[in-house]
Design brief:
With 303 residues, this protein is α/β, with parallel strands linked by helices. The chain is built from 11 helices and 16 strands. The radius of gyration is 24 Å and the shape is elongated. 36% of the residues are buried. The chain binds adenosine-5'-triphosphate (ATP). Adenosine-5'-triphosphate binds next to helix 1. The site of adenosine-5'-triphosphate (ATP) has 11 residues, from helix 1.
Length: 303
């Protein structure tokens, strides 16, 4: 297993005494990964990220970043992290470059960093524009530029594509990918959009009602997804189709002219079709369903 940049050991958390918002969360964020932290609204993503950053405190939380305990080594840890949890307060009457300059002085970074982060985030041409004229996507890129000023090894971003139009979403996705591949950053990015994480992440964690449901590589998730996939077949005689297939497969007759076959490998589709046609059943449609992350997610949380 690759060295973990973030680890939690049976992390529990409640805002009030006796309350538990997070239950037994064991995160393992490998160095060099884009770690997609997935869950619906209210799942506990922001609470977890705030704990990781020491914005919420929990003694004995078992949180370690770069091998050091949080909150014990908070200051040393934060020097190595860039975060985008709440919207940063941009000065709208200042230009992009001036905004960066304000934060650069506060963070005591070298002057050269401003030009560098403008370039990395694709804002060099807009650097002299007042930020009130920036699109939402540009404001988000500026926020990422601010988070990058001190050249952190790890970026933690809470729903960075929220509210952006499709173009803005693509730009942020490409920026995150570039930061990971070409700047060597480990990125933890939370999202409630499964399709988004599937396009971006190398590793995925699924959290629901404060509990961790899945953690692994994208390939492991897709193989799980594959095991849950169904083959949907439209036939002229459901009862006969069920009779033919039920010896070898788990078959569910659906209403009308549809049957579902569970756990069928995609390369078994041809032999299933052959069996049906050979048995005198007419097949008008045959396709895999539940084959996206959305379908998988629903199956895991309703299991
Ligand atoms: P969202 O995308 O909607 O923010 P999330 O997965 O980030 O969802 P959290 O914001 O971590 O979820 O919220 C988890 C639970 O904790 C929710 O039930 C929420 O109401 C509760 N919660 C969050 N912040 C507080 C707070 N400051 N005080 C009390 N309860 C809170």
């Amino acid at each position: 297993m690759k060295q973990a940049v973030i680890e939690t050991d049976h992390l529990d958390y409640g805002f009030q005494k006796g309350e538990r918002i997070l239950h037994d969360i064991n995160l393992h964020v490998p160095q060099g990964s884009i770690y997609g932290f997935l869950g619906p609204n209210g799942a506990g993503k922001t609470t977890t990220l705030r704990l990781l950053l020491g914005l919420l405190r929990s003694e004995n939380s078992g949180i370690r970043l770069f091998g050091n305990p949080m909150p014990g080594s908070r200051i040393d840890i934060l020097k190595r992290i860039g975060s985008l949890i709440e919207q940063p307060s941009l000065y709208l009457h200042l230009t992009g470059r001036e905004n960066l300059e304000v934060f650069r002085r506060a963070y005591e970074c070298p002057a050269s960093r401003v030009g560098e982060v403008l370039q990395v985030t694709g804002l060099s041409d807009a650097a002299a524009k007042k930020t009130k004229a920036y699109s939402l996507g540009m404001k988000q890129r500026l926020a990422i530029a601010i988070a990058l000023l001190h050249d952190p090894e790890l970026l933690i971003m809470d729903e960075p594509t929220n509210g952006l139009d499709p173009n803005g979403i693509i730009e942020i996705r490409e920026l995150i990918r570039d930061l990971n591949r070409h700047q060597g950053k480990t990125v933890l990015v939370s999202s409630h959009l499964l399709a988004e994480v599937e396009k971006l992440a190398t590793h995925v964690c699924i959290i629901h009602q404060g509990k961790l449901l899945f953690q692994g590589t994208l390939a492991e998730l897709q193989s799980l997804q594959h095991r849950h996939a169904l083959l949907e077949i439209e036939v002229d005689d459901v009862a006969r189709a069920e009779q033919i297939l039920s010896g070898r497969f788990t078959v569910f007759a659906q209403s009308g002219f549809t049957v579902h076959v569970a756990h069928a490998e995609p390369d078994e589709a041809a032999s299933i079709n052959h069996m049906l046609v050979g048995g005198g059943v007419r097949v008008s449609r045959l396709c895999a369903v539940g084959n996206d992350l959305e379908g998988l997610f629903l199956q895991i949380i309703s299991a």
